[in-house]
């Protein structure tokens, strides 16, 4: 992977930063955030402006270009990747390290007095705008919205915004009709005394209308906004997708409906002017509900006194708690996914060990091939992380020809992969060795496993926030002076984004909502040695009620049930480092894999993979 | 404990809330916070306005009186106590429970349109003012500062503000001279480019000048403010205490000093006008540093553009990291404290078991008597919680004649007590049974002990915040569906406040600063059953570097060393619920108690207590 040469691009960007054609006054700095106008984590190619200008294409990062400097802020998952992908024009700002300045501190330190800092108001979330603008103002600078995106002005071959057909999901998948979702949303709006709710996140639009799209790779969403009033529904969406009879039928566009369920379809680009019209029409005490992460542009459309901002929208919270149809769908999806992985690992063992011809890319492609054989497979849920040896230490690695290593019997192999099925979304990481792991590799793997089990088996009171469980995942590593520089888990959508709020398990997330039965998160501690190997063990787990001996204050308790049912390589485990309880957990888990996945492999006639599964789920025996 | 009858008082308060003598316009609600003008947790009798108006005298709570309602917000430690102490005029608002409204939500729900809400601007911290004022304004109400405290106007027998002599601390106690502390503070000020620092917290004034006082019971502080400039030092303090030759000598008030170390002594009451003068004298870009918890009145004295507010002051952070003189002092204080408690517990066993004549108050007094026999004893560090049976479930219980129970062989006894010695501050809780505890009591005690050990023995990377350790203390309880409704630990001062920032161990504290070697916190998980018993095991622990097998990213690791060395009653432990590691921890801890405290008991000729110590520190044996 050679870095992108950005000298010419930066020169051009610095020119437009001063060009009266685009800016009223020259800006001394220009911020290029990761997101799109919906604050999506995964974005369409036309929105990859930060990757275009810098070369760094990880999922999180913010670029700031000044007349002299170009700097990139990203987190621990991406330190190595960003360093590889960016040329010497760029300074890497490692977020989370003590000496790394914040964006505002850095700007204040490098900008000449009274500078203007520009940003696209559609891309920057309102809460970030507020924080940044305040910090800059207090240092004598100004944050200014630049209507035309300056990167777009120099991006001559920028791809078109996608506009692909939609998929309708019936009740057997969603459990709740879009009409009932609208009713529930309006009741939340009535509770908070707001008249309007603006849906800006793509997965929230998709979830609300029980529609799916494919405008963004890996995320089954489509470009749209919605504005829900107490008696009106406006859907802002482009293209002829609304001409599709299935979609018209699903949304009842041609039926005579009660007016409050009649959907008005409007052009995607008209959201700002429509919202400004809503803002202008409000009487005192009438409020409009927006996420505080909605774009600065849309937030500004509503005068301040009329805004009702919350960190999580009622849709985000409702979406996180899966209903029975959704959890059953997720179970089915994970069973199919496990079948594909058993096939893959069985195939890898046969190919890697004697032949040594399998590369990271071949392995990733093979994983996709096996998944695509499963019913209702749609696409992958994220770019497969297929990494061996030192590549495994690059936390969000994606193999490309320049970095593509061959799997061998001498290195640890880490595969983090998942798929979108029509009934659910998967995300699983397994770390394995095709030869004989060293004692040290086994030791590290076992600490990671202990952390994985500590979270998975944790029992905690109703109302507990996920971040309170994060240290459980680290305790065994901490005891030996080890750690990992990423969170432990994220919310997972139901045939939706593989990362979703409002819950998670992280030392960083303080604004998370309490875990509730029905929520689905990942449990994925790891350990990484730069230049050597990476270890991660990830299951997707469902929050379920726990039976406990006592019940303090009648609060009730929760725990997790793994939805992922793929063997954890016992060869990598140093059994003597496990407690008896942990050993039992592994054996119970493997027993369940054998029963549930074994039955499905049998049903699908995949006998060789079944033999592999049975071999890999032999009980551990702990010598006392 | 019968509740205070507040009908007449509330009537009077409601009258002054409308009286033009005190308020420009009538206020429809009046807020009575806990604190004093220094936002102290422990306050002088003249500042106990919330207790005066409501009867509830716990350390935390906010009263709000409207024309129709009177409501009290307090946290889980005080639910029972507040319910006992307040009459029917009051509604208890249980903070931390899901259905409890916030003060602002409640105000909005009960106030007539366009109301005014009054509060004393010297008592309310600026950050709370801001939050509250914003919430009220957005609902059409106004928060207004009422210069004269309305409770004081009806408090006819309000005691005088204390003004007691000062104690000077020499280098052998403090390790650093006040001059060097000023130099270090000014260097922090220079780093942040501020010209002035306003010291508002009483313990910060005391720490900065190496002075102690006794204006507030349990906290060795005195009423004063300080304003530190780059070349000036102003100390705002009343009375003839500055006439004391020892104090004059200590502060070098009569020496010819470099001007930047010359202390100007000014009247306590002149702080506001002096600060307003400072505020008026500032040029653009000149900043004044204040805690964001400083009073609204003082914060407003500095025009907004000139304020530099932080949640923790540089003094708060420096004070938390104890130097060698301070940690050695803390060690000595804890040894003396343990001697007193060994004497007490030995005495209790002799008195309670055969005679049954010891009440909670007698036990508390006896504890104080034994402590007062120790060298450099000053006073208690908080009101002794001496509680038996159901009183133990009242988390911050203080025995009074009406509630005073007799210790018996049938109940669990919980003693949470501590002292101020000239060399350090102690805070220790032990829970014991003088007869035969039930299996259930032992079970609960053992879970609490497991939590205590999990924190005490935790190893964690440098830079970890204390709140990340909180769940370790709860894990064993959670496994059985149990929990406790308070944090796990607080910072402890060095011959200063028994509760101090900026670190702690709590699920609630997200703004805590990372733990550092030299910080001192408490480790005090518990379990409480209303109406039955309370269990808590508390040690004061010092943060120390930990040796680990590996050292990820060269970050280094930390752990805790118990400073408290008082036996944990083994009779209460169900050894079979402990792991071998936990069992070893208890035995190692008891071995250290035996060695260190045994030697001191020997030295002090306290042979009977020594025998008790040896008996109580017999190793546990775990049957495999």
Automatic annotation (TrEMBL), chains A, B:
Its EC number is 3.4.11.9. One of its GO terms (cellular component) is cytoplasm. GO terms for biological process: proteolysis. Pfam families: Creatinase_N (PF01321), Creatinase_N_2 (PF16189), Peptidase_M24 (PF00557), Peptidase_M24_C (PF16188). Coiled coil: none annotated. GO terms for molecular function: metal ion binding; metalloaminopeptidase activity. It is an enzyme of class 3 (hydrolase). Residues 328-543 form the Peptidase M24 domain. Residues 558-620 form the Peptidase M24 C-terminal domain. It catalyses: Release of any N-terminal amino acid, including proline, that is linked to proline, even from a dipeptide or tripeptide. It is found in: Cytoplasm. Belongs to the peptidase M24B family. This is Xaa-Pro aminopeptidase 1. It comes from Pterocles burchelli. The lineage of its organism: Eukaryota, Metazoa, Chordata, Craniata, Vertebrata.
